[in-house]
Amino acid sequence: GAILAQYQGYADINMGVGSIVIGLAAIMIGEVLFSKRSYVHRLVGVVIGSIVYRIIIAFVLRISLSANLIIKITADDMKLITAIIVVIALVAPNLKDAAAKSAVKED
Fold first, then answer.
1. Closest CA to 44 of 53, 33, 58, 55
2. Cβ(100)–Cβ(91) under 8 Å?
3. For every one of its 107 residues, what pLDDT tens digit does the chain have, with 9 covering 90 and above?
4. CA dihedral defined by 73, 77, 78, 80, rounded to 10 degrees?
């Protein structure tokens, strides 16, 4: 961050927000994939979560660049898509627990 601010010649309060969102999304996706395990599993989960997050973003950008798509994805759309990914990562553990409880009730 400091090198970027020095290169650009100014610093802005919003410069690191994207990095924080990416980091939080990676942690949340990693927790969904590797929850309640050892420290090493959680660390690997965060790394895999960041890779999954980047794959999702790359997929969305690939769809956006498709010649058949009428609506192009803008920066604001990417912010919305990122927010949706974070919400899904937040809700996924609850859905997983609810599915497990309903499966136990059916047995």
1. 33
2. no
3. 677 777 878 777 766 667 777 788 788 887 777 777 788 888 888 888 888 888 888 887 777 776 566 667 777 777 788 778 878 878 877 887 788 888 787 76
4. -150
Q: Of 34, 31, 19, 22, nearest to 86 (Cα)?
A: 22
CA terminus-to-terminus distance, the chain: 54
Structure confidence by residue, pLDDT tens digits, 24-36: 878 888 777 777 7
CA 63 – CA 20 distance, rounded (Å): 25
Within the chain, strands assigned E span none
CA neighbor of 21 nearest in space, from 44, 47, 50, 41:
50
In contact, 3 and 24? CB cutoff 8 Å: no
